[in-house]
Structure formats: structure tokens, C-alpha cells
Backbone:
């Protein structure tokens, strides 16, 4: 479960019974991994890795929230786009 609002500096991610708080101010960058292929069989699904100052990472799928919408809610952090041949986390 992801609870995020553009107007708040804290967002929450985890299971319904164990939501963890994350600070948007602690984000170093966001990596968006997209699969490369002649035929895009993944339907445009990307892996999103949010990296924090303490070295931790939060890995999400664009199935949860579209990449542009997520980046807007995170206050436009620095973004690195990676294209990979094989879709893996």
C-alpha cells in the first residue's frame, strides 16, 4: 500500500498493518528502469527505485502509480532513467 500526497513531506509504504513513514526531503534520487525490446511485452511497466540519504532504497512498480504522477507527488526529485534489456529488479 502506498499513501502519498503532493502537499505533505511524509509518505507511507508497506502492508496495511505495517506502514512505514518516509520523508520526501531525504530522497537523493529516483531511478526509473524500463525494459528495452523490439516488442514491448511489459505494457510500459517500469521499476521505480527511490534512493534515500541513509543508503536505503524503496522499490515500486509503475503498476501502483504512473511514473509522472509519482514524480510530481515527490516534488520532482532528480531522476535517472535506465533502459535494460531484461526486465528485472
Residues:
Amino acid at each position: 500500500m502506498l499513501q502519498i500526497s503532493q502537499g505533505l513531506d511524509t509518505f507511507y509504504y508497506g502492508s496495511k498493518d505495517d506502514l512505514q513513514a518516509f520523508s520526501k526531503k531525504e530522497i537523493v534520487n529516483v531511478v526509473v528502469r524500463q525494459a528495452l525490446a523490439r516488442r514491448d511485452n511489459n505494457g510500459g511497466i517500469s521499476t521505480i527505485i527511490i534512493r534515500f540519504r541513509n543508503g536505503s532504497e524503496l522499490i515500486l512498480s509503475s503498476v501502483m502509480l504512473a511514473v509522472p504522477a509519482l514524480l510530481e507527488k515527490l516534488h520532482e526529485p532528480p531522476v535517472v532513467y535506465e533502459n535494460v534489456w531484461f526486465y528485472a529488479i
